[in-house]
Amino acid sequence: MRIGWLCLASVMMSGIAAEASPDAQAQSSPAVKPPVLQSRQLARPDGFIKAVASSYMALGDLYRDGKTTVGGAEAALAYYRGLANPGRPDAIYAIISPSDLMGTSEDAPADPFAATELYLQAAAMGSAEALMRLGDLYREGRVVAADPKRAYIFYDQAAKAGSDDAKLRVGEMLARGQGVSRDTGKGLAIIAALADSGNAEALVLLGDLYRPGGPGMVAMDPAKAFDFYRKAVALGYDAAKLRIGEMTAIGQGVAKDVNAGIAMIEEVVARTRNPAGLVLLGSLYSRTDGGVISIDFAKAFGYFRRAADSGDETGILRTGEMLARGRGIGQSYQAGRAMLAGLADHGDTFALIALGDLLSDPTVAPVDLPAAVASYDKAASLGHSDALVRLGDLYSRNGSVASELPRAFSYYVRASQAGNIVGKLRVGEMTLLGRGTNRDVDAGLAQMNALADDGDPEALNLLGALYQHGIGGLLQADPARAYGYFSKSADAGNVIGSVRAGEMMVRGQGTTKNVVDGLALVRAAADAGSSEALMSLGTLMADGSTGAFDAPEAVRAYEKAAVLGRPDALVRIGDIYRVGGPIPVDPGKAFEFYRRAGLAGDETGRLRQGEMTARGEGTSQDIAAGLDLVRQVGAAGDPYAYVVLGDLHLSGAIGSIDGPAAVAAYESAARQGRADALLRLGDLYRDGRGVPADGKKAAEYYLKAVDAEDPTATAPGEGVRY
């Protein structure tokens, strides 16, 4: 047998029993329990104990990654149990890798529970690395439910055992408030101490904490982040060079130089064959990470495919998604779906969720509701609470699936009970609005405020949005309170909080009007590469909030946001040219921007394009093609498309007024919660436009519109935005 991955230990065996006790035998179940070392066995030399612990960790890795079977694992454990040999006290024993002992299986399901037991046994032997494995398992949440609190406990134990890697994770989780109460100062101090000792990974982490857009960012300072990465690069750390390349390419913290940035990343990939670099390049060219490089799905697919060919799971996942959606390559829905299913069948919860997303997306293929639900359910059964949130969204926010608010609420409750922050927010919001459950404004607010009190930025932003706009009859608008929530979110380093607080300062809402300082907040986030900030800046320039209309700057801001992956910014530019005002009306330009937005996947852009095509506005008139495009948007789940369709039938722009067709379109929109469609129906029968005047029918529609304006009747997908 080839002896690979050797951990050699010089073992003095005098006086040591030959076999482990019967209680220590492996169980014949997936959750294999390794032999428990008795006190007399613990007297063995440290080298032997460490070697056996390493073997248990390697076997745990195989279980974690779905590369072993129960039979194979038991064979490996039997080998390790048989190592003791009192007749050869001076022998040197080779602890052989489980994969060399038994080979690997590519078809075995992941078994995180068996992996956990093996890691725990190795930890009991004093292995800090095993504690790290356990922390990683619960932090990453790929094959077991993410549990930050449990992850922090394991990292903390490993740190106390002397692991620098664990100290780094402890510092990070303290700084970000993940799994433990946030203590930014203490967390940064731990990380900085490691960085000062020459730990390159600590320098990269410091960069991540100051880089805009990162999860748990402590402050937005791209120049500072770039400097930390630069120091790590000087230590030869390739992960830092990838980040430097990305920031150089997108102009974050340094002057933008796309070619130089891409070249840096390509150099690392060529030298190290690092699939993370390939995934990064794919993301840059498909803008899934908010880059500012022109979209090139073909290039992106090529990079993801190369990463997939190296066995990288993220590469496989992205390749499958692009195949199924026809991005960068001819669409092959079944082939892409099969790639995602292959990962999902091995218990990869990220793949299960991605598969559910694909199966429930009406823009790719007809929704396969049973299969989507089954995929999400399997991820949920593996403990991934994000899948429960997806299930709730499926029944409350997906226009192509019949809304079942009580069912959606039950999923959100389960996610909330599992500790999922988004689930808790959804429960609070639906309880406040009385959607899918009895309305209880106080309980709903209490749920969200509990999260806000813990510093959760999404809760702070949601509460800010609720109090900024109010909810008719339920919650009075309170701009001062809204500004307070957004300010707290901004203080925690959240970009959205900073942008919203800046907007309110510019407009003098809830705080003293201060155009200069408010714009500075928004511009800082925009300059750091936040597409949301660029959208905000464009709006402030276009609506006169600053005291003047600056349509050219608005267009520039929206263009930058569009390059950052926001096709709705193209719609905003189209609206500027279509409506005119500060700049001349230009229907041709408006149509072109709507067309670009539609090509980038924005349904509103497609809707505007269809409407203008039907009317012959800014383009050659093609009534049939325009109406068909409007109907497609409606079928994809946007009920407003049916309002537009009704308006077209009454406009006279596509032929004679067709009252019955308008009624049918408005009724379709009304069934999906559009109160404005009910108002149009009332007007239509009141005025007798295209149909016989009927005051009684008009009154009925107006009363329905009043009921539909109640917050509990919010249309699917139109919950509070934050």
Describe the structure.
InterPro entries: Sel1-like (IPR006597), Sel1_AlgK (IPR050767), TPR-like_helical_dom_sf (IPR011990). Residues 1-20 form the signal peptide. Keywords: Signal. It comes from Aminobacter niigataensis. Pfam families: Sel1 (PF08238). The chain is an all-alpha fold. The protein is built from 36 helices and 2 strands. Helix 22 (441-453) packs across helix 23 (457-469) and helix 34 packs antiparallel against helix 35 (675-687). A two-stranded antiparallel sheet has the order 1-2. It is 64% helix and 1% strand.
Please give a handful of descriptors for the protein shown.
mainly alpha, 2 strands, two-stranded antiparallel sheet, disordered N terminus, 36 helices, 722 residues
User: By helix and strand content, what is the structural category?
Assistant: mainly alpha
Number of strands: 2
Helix content: 55-70%
For the record, give the distance between the C-alpha atoms at the N and C termini, rounded to a whole number. Answer: 60 Å
Kindly report the average pLDDT value. Answer: 83
Strand content: under 5%
Spatial order of strands in the largest sheet: 1-2
Radius of gyration: 29 Å
Main sheet overview: 2 strands, antiparallel
Residue stretches low in confidence (pLDDT < 50, at least 5 long) are: 1-45, 86-94, 710-722
- Helical stretch tally: 36
Q: Rough shape?
A: globular
